[in-house]
Amino acid sequence: ALAAFLRACPALSQGEETREAHWLLMDPALALEFLSQVDELGDAVTTEWPHGQSMKLVGRSVEGGSFKASLRRSQDWFALSGEVQVDEGMVLKMGRLIEGLQEGYGRFVNLGNGEFLPLAEDFKRRLEALVKLGDMRGEEVRLPPLAAGLAEELLDGAGQVDADPEWRADCRRVEEAQKLVPKVPATLRGELRDYQQEGFRWLMRLAHWGAGACLADDMGLGKTIQTLAMLVARGPEGPSLVVAPTSVCPNWADEARRFAPTLNVKELKQAGRDEVLAGLVPMDLLVLSYGLLQSERARLSKVPWNVVVLDEAQAIKNTGAKRSLAAMKLNGRFRVATTGTPIENQLSELWNIFRFLNPGYLGSAESFSRRFAVPIERDGDRVARQQLRRMIRPFILRRTKDEVLSELPEKTEITLTVDLNEKEWSFYEALRRKTLEDFAAGPGPAEKIHVFAALMKLRRACCNVVLAGSPAEMPSAKLEAFADLLGEVRGGGHKALVFSQFVDHLAILKDWLTERGIPFQYLDGSTPPEERRRRVAAFQAGEGDCFLISLRAGGTGLNLTAADCVIHMDPWWNPAVEEQASDRAHRIGQTRPVTVYRIVARGTIEEKIVALHAWKRDLADGLLEDSGRAVKLSAEELLNLIRDPA
Fold first, then answer.
1. What are φ and ψ of residue 411, in 5° steps?
2. How far is it, in rounded angstroms, from Cα 643 to Cα 637?
3. Consecutive H or E run containing 148
4. Which element (helix H / strand E) includes 381?
5. What is the pLDDT of residues 358-409, one digit of tens each?
6. What is the pLDDT averaged over residues 294-304?
7. Which candidate among 363, 477, 543, 565 keeps its CA 20 to 30 Å from the CA of 420?
8. What does 168-179 look like in DSSP terms, one character per residue?
9. pTM metric for this prediction
10. What is the pLDDT of residues 528-574, one digit of tens each?
11. Helix (H) / strand (E) containing 567
12. Measuring CA to CA, how many Å separate 17 from each of 2, 22, 37, 45, 494?
């Protein structure tokens, strides 16, 4: 009989067996689970409460079929309310159920006086997920209209759902969009691969739905041509706008003329801007930079755009930046963000992209931080992460190269660890110790920027001590490693892309190449767009054995498949930015294996930055691929990077 009892009450196995047939259940939720299991045994057992306050379960577990829901339109959201009738004399509103679940008794709602209402586990999960879709206000949840599809799934199985016609219309629109099979425009030149056709159809479905879309494919998978196909298909409905980094604007114009000749590419020149904007008609495509978006915000916000595309949309990751505020003012019927890195450092970046795509969908910044950012970034809350992933999944399409390009050649990544020479090491170590002395008392709450500046100086010293203020020039271990590596690359008949985040570091390499008569191309943020285009074309045509490129200015939007070797002279904080740069060579059109080298100074902060790369990948993967945990570093954690040699 005891063995049968233990099988029927598995909650006991999670408690502490203090002696034979005696258990201690310290967790109230576990004790309630035990009582629920005992209750299922009926008259087969008798329960006594010899000491303390008794805990009584009111009825059996409440299933979703007992839930009556109501959905009503209210301003720009839907108000969801509901109730459960426990018995003839007790009806609990949805707000009371949620409040009870937050008291820490698991699936049991505390009714007071030692009484608890058990909820079925599935019903509890659905209730909590519904609340996460919006904001709880009193007895109702305010749901954004775009959450209609997800809410409908969660309400499946409810006993009764009383919804107004607008809610039903939104749900029908979701169903219609899912069934839509749009055809690629016949006027599009060039054949779309299967996954690119699916990307086009996905964009068109979201446009039909009335929702914004984030195309987040890996770099090099053809986000531009997928977007152009959509722009051609929607072209007759009005003029469209593409905003891109300055370096990428010429590429957009060239690709549009090449693949979408029925689009009329327009530019905003210095004069006649009012006339250009006033004269826009269907099939017109205006391409401009984020800088122009910011300076011409007033003019651009007055145009009723058919489609607005933000390319490299991580450019608006800072919520208070002027370019971000300008983007939010644009009036577009269909909004698209294309980016290989929707999350670079923290979840607020994703929130801001969604603020552009689907305003209000993820709630206010404060609400998003409370519901998702803090639980995920600080606490590693897997439930919150899964809920956020469920919410963003309909609006983000992400494919990796491994998934869709079996014919893409192999990419090999190699970290070359170099030892600083004796003088370099002495300079670096003295600088490190001086930094620690400056922050001996620990960083204050407002000193993160100063810690970051100190780390930047140490990183520059790893590249070449001259970059960190050394009065005397001395041999550079990294320059020697670069010379050896480039010699091997050239000797094997290969070409290399050489990236550094420091323009003055590139200047040192530039002088070294010039002195030895080695042909090269060069590009940084000061290179004019037309000259940038000419140099890229020259390199692709075979002019130059290597291409020196500043990481931020040339890490996106360039097709440089003439190179099959990539050299990163210094590691960047975020691996996604490095990967974007490497994908200038490892992309569609590349026929040879690509080798990526990272030159890292041993025993320095650079080694710790490389170790951080795995953490940073988790920030994006935890949402986009459902693994890992987000990590955000405080000033104290940044300072720990230099407290001890790596």
1. -120, 125
2. 10
3. helix 148-154
4. none
5. 998 998 889 899 888 888 888 888 888 888 988 998 899 998 877 777 666 7
6. 94
7. 565
8. HHHHHHHHHHHH
9. 0.70
10. 888 888 999 999 999 999 999 998 777 677 788 899 899 999 988 77
11. strand 565-568
12. 14, 6, 18, 20, 69
CA angle in degrees (0–180, nearest 5) for 109-113-114:
60
Within 10 angstroms of residue 322's Cβ, the number of other Cβ atoms is: 13
For the record, the structure tokens of 309 come out as 């595309």
Nearby residues of 634 by Cβ (< 8 Å), 6 or more positions away: 448
Query: Which residue is associated with the tokens 């007033």?
Result: 298
The span from the CA of 2 to the CA of 201, in Å, is 61
Instruction: Read off the amino acid at residue 209.
Output: W
Map tokens 């689907």 to a residue: 358
Q: DSSP 3-state assignment of 71?
A: strand
| Whole-number percent of the chain with pLDDT over 90 | 34
* CA-to-CA dists, residue 116 to 60, 103, 110, angstroms: 10, 12, 5
Q: At what angle do helices 347-357 and 605-624 cross, to 10 degrees?
A: 40
Show the tokens assigned to 522. Answer: 């060069």
- Rounded CA-CA distance 119/292 in Å is 56
Q: Are 238 and 282 in contact (CB under 8 A)?
A: yes
Asked if 77 and 144 touch (Cβ cutoff 8 Å), the reply is yes
Question: What is the DSSP code string of 77-144?
Answer: EEEEEEEEEEETTEEEEHHHHHHHHTTS-TTEEEEETTEEEEB-HHHHHHHHHHHHTSEEETTEEEE-
pLDDT beyond 70 at 644: no
Stated as kind and residue range, the H or E segment containing 553 is helix 551-554
Helices 194-209 and 165-179: crossing angle in degrees, nearest 10, is 160
Top-confidence residue, 226 or 159: 226
Q: Is the pLDDT of residue 629 over 50?
A: no
Query: Considering only CA atoms, which of 446, 384, 381, 430 is closest in space to residue 634?
Result: 446
CA dihedral (403, 404, 407, 411) positive or negative:
negative
- Answer for the pair 584, 558: CB distance below 8 angstroms, yes or no: yes
pLDDT of residue 645: 46
**Amino acid in the structure at residue 168:** R
Residues 6 or more apart whose Cβ sits within 8 Å of residue 646: 602, 603, 604, 605, 606, 607, 608, 611
- Whether 450 and 505 have beta carbons less than 8 Å apart is answered as no
Maximal CA-CA distance, the chain:
95
259 in Cβ contact with 251 (< 8 Å)? no
Residue 311 has a pLDDT of 93
What's the burial of 389, exposed, middle or buried (CB within 10 Å: 0-12/13-18/19+)?
middle
**For residue 189, what is the enclosing H or E element?**
none
Closest of 333, 289, 338 to residue 308, by C-alpha? 333
* Residues near 306 by beta carbon (within 8 Å), at least 6 away in sequence: 234, 235, 237, 238, 239, 240, 282, 332, 333, 334
| Nearby residues of 472 by Cβ (< 8 Å), 6 or more positions away | none
